[in-house]
Amino acid sequence: MDIAASLAEALEAVTFADRGADEVTGLLVDAVVAWGEGQGWRTYRRAASVVPLPPPYERQHSVLDVACARPGGPPVVVEVDHGDRRRTVDKLAAEAAAGRFAVWVRWGPGRLAVPDGVHLVALPVTARAGLHGRGKVYSRTPDLPAPQHSDGGSSYTEEELDPDTALVLRAYAAFARGDIDAAVRDLAPDVDWVEPEEFPGGGHLRGPAAVAAYLRNSYDGWEQLHSEPVAHRRGDQVVVVHRVWGVLRDGTAHDATVADVFTVEDGRVVLMMAYADPADAFR
Hints:
- The chain is of the alpha+beta class and about 280 residues long.
- It has six helices and 14 strands.
- It has helices spanning about 5-10, 20-40, 85-95, 165-175, 180-185, 210-220; strands spanning about 15-20, 40-50, 60-70, 75-80, 100-105, 120, 125-130, 135-140, 185-195, 205, 220-235, 235-250, 255-265, 270-275.
- It has a six-stranded mixed sheet, covered by helices on one side. A five-stranded mixed sheet has the order 2-3-4-5-6, with helices on both faces. Strands 1-8-7 form a three-stranded antiparallel sheet, covered by helices on one side.
- The longest helix has 18 residues, at about 20-40.
- The radius of gyration is 24 Å and the shape is elongated.
């Protein structure tokens, strides 16, 4: 039996939507326990590790997320983490050195090397900003066909759009191909650009140079990027519901939908207000 492959197959069935980091870890720990019990093994949560705690608690030992006692073989020990934790790496290395079958379930990005004797089970997730200051939330859904998208991120043609909407969507197409200069070309010299405070680099930006720096930093954070803006005309404003998805530079799959509200005057964007929750843009 390939233990790591068997566990990976069991965890592939675990799905969730918009859960916090602790919730995701808890769900995966539950799934590991169920997998171990399904093998007919005695399975324990928070089992004692071979690694002692640092002074003054050296008479106590660190704990493992899950340990499984099995007949005819060494124990199987499992740690579940979001990304890299040096403590986890060191603990699993010590477990492997003690003869245990050590498995690291990592459901977020990671750069630390996996120690010899430790078996990695990597689970990609998507992440987005949670609502109402909740912080990041994570989702893992069954594999679906890749969504359709175009280089411009829109199914509209400019002939179908009013000039202001076409201007705004040209900026999204420029951002999607990494042409930040073109993305800010139609901003007014004193444009007000407001991003949610919880976004990296977010807040109130003033002027095309500040907006360009923000957009460039945002674009550079992606390893693979797909952009799908959908525009709605609302009086003198253009509301764009913008879905972006792909893979971040740190290897994390990411999928987020926001709303951006543009005010255009005389062929220039004078104001842009972004909303982490698209529903807020229509209230």
